[in-house]
Design brief:
By secondary structure, the chain is α+β, with helices and mostly antiparallel strands. Helices cover 42% and strands 14% of the residues.
């Protein structure tokens, strides 16, 4: 994904780093990427960047008028136009639509300019007036900064692979963190898969100067929002409705075309209530699998039609299976191992979506922020899959998770779940296009802390907002059978049917119990998958690992090198692969994890492609 990378301090350039090493080849994930490098003295800084063409940060580097302050920024920032007008009124040369105004915001506010920023980003600023460097990220930590410090300097990058490329001695796994990925699906805390590489915490502003550094400051903490007064149900609804209407236009403005990734849920529907044609043009698309038109697709077509917007289908076709080995490796490489190989399907569909529009608007994070949905927790593992010492680390990670769950529920979701669990998928998506969601807007998240508890248990707020904005939209049932004007009995039956098909598809796919897998195998000639799969989800790896992808699974996991990894029980790995492909057991999650771990070794630790 687009980002920044470089070295702070560490002596003369020619001794501490060859400028060629600052090239962004390992962080350039598509032909449309722009790249650049800059080297400065006093303060010493070697920095590079990548960005999508025509994106908000495609104008790097940016300078103030006197060229004594330079900013390298990656990501997006959603300031209101009036803020830029204030900067112009003070004599600054500001253009709308890109990141140039941010350097002037720093001139006016100093380090407090970070408190004004609203978006997902990372950046580094060199102030030559006082020899100071600021390294920072957004308050949620989605603009990741990996770092390592040694006697030669402070190394930082938006992607760990750049550090691994120029410092090969860092290519060592932290087995405690790898164990967390097996149990929780992600690394917890500000740690990484690599033993000598850490992460900047969310909301960081680390300051380096000639005398000392870094001073590790936080410009934002969640306690700022936790202490707000809770609103009454009606006051919260009216405040939310007005805020959502005010916030959404920020996410529709762009130098490049914006398109809506539309599903059958509530959160995308809320966005669509504010984009009815002809006043707003917002093309829509929906991802679909190979079995049938999924429910998301059917509903999204209706929603787009009511709103007067165009709609296209992006399907997972036969070419996906042919490209899976390439896509799986690329997914793990791009995400630094934070996304498992199921993200290959995200890479596939988002690369197609980028051809329609380089900016993707989505309802992601709506249920998490507004209804406080916790999206991950430790899952069941197979202890016999691991060597005893590593199995103990996997078991220990359950306690680590429980410790992190303490405190305010929304704080866990916004500032831990989002940058730890959601980051991997986002990094894969962002490598293809620019992702946007209004549900992580600072103003909206701050307001969500004021929600009364009784409004968090159900869909009352989104259903009411949709129904008031558009009765036609409100009458279209969601993928779970919800609508703002339910009909007695009819709506209940529809809701029951959709809940049943949702759970049945899960039980036939990822969640199939081991006993049921044996029965299903006995009746495989009936192709029962045609009854269940494709109704809700557009990817189905349990079946794919048995059929279309079985050769790849065997080639990679039954390789003697893979079976010999020191933390695995090779005999158990062999049995898991064999039983799954035979159809007598369901080990989809374990196969995801095992392939991902092996690709971390091959594409990040043992590769020569750097």
């Amino acid at each position: 994904m687009p980002g920044i990378f470089g070295i702070i301090g560490g002596g003369r350039h020619e001794k501490s780093c060859d400028p060629a090493e600052l090239k962004a080849s390992c962080m350039k994930h598509g032909p449309d990427y722009l790249t650049g490098v800059a080297l400065f003295e006093n303060p010493r800084l070697k920095v590079g960047w990548t960005s999508h063409k025509s994106s908000f940060s495609a104008c790097m580097p940016v300078w103030n008028e006197t060229r004594d302050v330079c900013l390298i920024f990656s990501g997006e920032e959603f300031t209101e136009p009036c803020e830029i007008d204030l900067l112009r009124a003070k004599g600054h040369e500001c253009k709308s639509g890109d990141a140039r105004y941010l350097v002037h915001l720093y001139e006016e506010k100093g380090t407090r300019f970070l408190e004004k920023l609203n978006g997902w980003f990372s950046g580094i600023l060199a102030d030559f007036r006082n020899g100071r460097i600021l390294l920072f990220n957004d308050r949620y930590g989605l603009g990741r900064i990996y770092y390592h410090q040694n006697k030669d300097g402070f190394y930082f990058s938006s992607e760990a692979k750049w550090l691994l490329a120029i410092l090969p001695e860092l290519r060592r796994l932290d087995y405690a963190c790898l164990a967390q990925t097996f149990s929780c699906g992600c690394v917890l805390g500000n740690r990484t898969l690599f033993s000598s590489i850490a992460l900047l915490p969310p909301g960081s502003c680390w300051i380096f100067d000639c005398l000392e550094g870094p001073r590790k400051l936080a410009y934002f903490t969640a306690s700022t929002w936790e202490d707000q007064e809770i609103l009454s149900p009606e006051e919260y609804y009216t405040t939310f409705r007005d805020a959502f209407s005010r916030i959404l236009p920020r996410y529709l403005r762009a130098k490049s075309p914006v398109a809506m990734s539309l599903t059958g849920g509530l959160d995308g529907r809320m966005i669509m209530t504010r984009v009815e044609a002809p006043s707003v043009k917002l093309p829509c698309y929906t991802f679909c699998g190979p079995y049938r038109d999924c429910l998301d697709l059917k509903i999204a077509r209706r929603v787009a039609r009511v709103c007067g917007q165009s709609h296209e289908t992006i399907s997972v076709g036969p070419s996906f299976f042919a490209r899976f080995p390439e896509l799986a490796g690329k997914c793990v490489f791009i995400s630094d191992g934070t996304m498992d190989v199921s993200g290959a399907v995200e890479l596939y569909v988002n690369s197609l979506a980028a051809r329609l529009a380089p900016v993707r608007l989505t309802g992601n994070y709506g249920s998490e922020i507004l209804r406080r949905h916790v999206a991950f927790k430790p899952g069941s593992t197979c202890p016999e899959l691991f060597e005893p010492q590593f199995a103990a680390l996997v078991s220990k990670s359950f306690g680590t998770y429980q410790a992190e769950r303490g405190g305010h529920n929304l704080t866990f979701i916004a500032f831990k779940q989002t940058p730890w669990h959601h980051y991997g998928r986002l990094s894969v998506e962002q490598s293809c296009l620019t992702m946007r969601s209004p549900y992580l807007d600072n103003d909206l998240v701050a307001l969500a802390y004021r929600a009364p508890l009784r409004l968090l248990d159900g869909p009352d707020v989104p259903l009411r907002l949709i129904g008031e904005a558009s009765k036609r939209l409100g009458k279209i049932p969601t993928d779970r059978g919800l609508c703002s004007a339910p009909l007695p009995l009819v709506s209940d039956l529809l809701r029951f049917y959709r809940e049943f098909t949702y759970k049945a598809e899960y039980a036939y796919d990822y969640g199939m119990p081991q006993w049921l897998a044996k029965i299903d195998n006995l009746f495989s000639h009936l192709h029962l998958e045609n009854l269940f799969l494709g109704r809700q989800k557009f990817y189905h790896f349990r079946l794919w690992y048995r059929k279309e992808l079985s050769t790849y699974v065997k080639d990679i996991l039954l390789d003697p090198v893979s079976l010999g990894r020191p933390y695995l029980n090779g005999n158990r790995v062999r049995k898991i692969v064999t039983d799954h492909i035979r159809g007598v057991a369901n080990y989809t999650t374990q196969i995801h994890q095992l392939i991902t771990a092996e690709l971390i070794h091959r594409s990040l630790l043992e590769t020569t492609q750097y």
